[in-house]
Amino acid sequence: MKSATLLTTLSLASTALSTAIPLPIRTNTRPIRLLHKPPLSPPSQGARILSSQSEESTLGGAHLPSPPSGKVASVTATFTIPHASMPVTGPTANNTVGLYAASFHVGIDSFSGLCPNNRFIRAGVDIFWDGTIGGEQTPWVWYQSSPADEDGLGFGNFSAKAGDVVKFVVTGSEVRVENYGNVTCTKGLKARQVGVQRVDGGGLCGGEAAWAVEDFPLAGMPDFPVAFADFGGVVFKNLEVGFGNGTVRRNAEGAGVRDVRLDAQGGRLTDCVVGEGGGSVRCDRVVEE
């Protein structure tokens, strides 16, 4: 019953929004928005969450706690923006007039909700598939600094599309995104487009670096997440964590891992792992049987 209600509600929301905004392909003005809710409070299992978790979570990916010797001051990662498509298995599959979405982001204190007053900074990309207006839509590139930005803000005229390689650098004072286009390697390449925004990192704990996949709710419908898009998989690469003591770490070895798990959408929806040697974080879209 929960799954049927979810599909019906999402179909009605998608139809209503597309009727009000009859755009064939969305641009970075983002007429349909996701509500970028704050990080979850610490889960009951503790700081290190493995993919065998049983409790529900809209958030997946990896988080690397800061060592006693220094707080997290910067987090970097590169990834290829995945294509969004309609799932073909699971309770939310094959809704040809439905709306599906997924979000990918990089941040400081943006995973476990460990920082007092829930201070965090993060930046990322939302992808959409909307059956009422042509299927896959233009991705939305955003950043968020709490508590000043209750929702994500855009990077002005910065644009990106599925298949583009983007690099995010998040610090306590600035968020930077670079778009290298549809390439297989960025070494030696100059970014085609760069977006930079100043942020206020006052109150950050510097307690963790995060590379995440998330199923946010739609803006105006905060009570449940949108139907999770099929995105194949995403790989966060070229990882770098800078610490306040001046040291830099270029891997996520030993990071805690969590999967997106939503019972109404079929259970475990991602398979997230830290790559060998900690050099990458990969999250594949799955449907738990």
TrEMBL record:
CDD domains: Peptidase_G1 (cd13426). Residues 1-20 form the signal peptide. Transmembrane segments: none annotated. The keyword Signal applies. InterPro entries: ConA-like_dom_sf (IPR013320), Peptidase_G1 (IPR000250), Peptidase_G1_sf (IPR038656). Residues 36-71 are annotated as: Disordered. Keywords: Signal. PANTHER family: ASPERGILLOPEPSIN, PUTAITVE (AFU_ORTHOLOGUE AFUA_7G01200) (PTHR37536:SF1), PUTATIVE (AFU_ORTHOLOGUE AFUA_3G02970)-RELATED (PTHR37536). This is Acid proteinase. It comes from Podospora bellae-mahoneyi. The lineage of its organism: Eukaryota, Fungi, Dikarya, Ascomycota, Pezizomycotina.
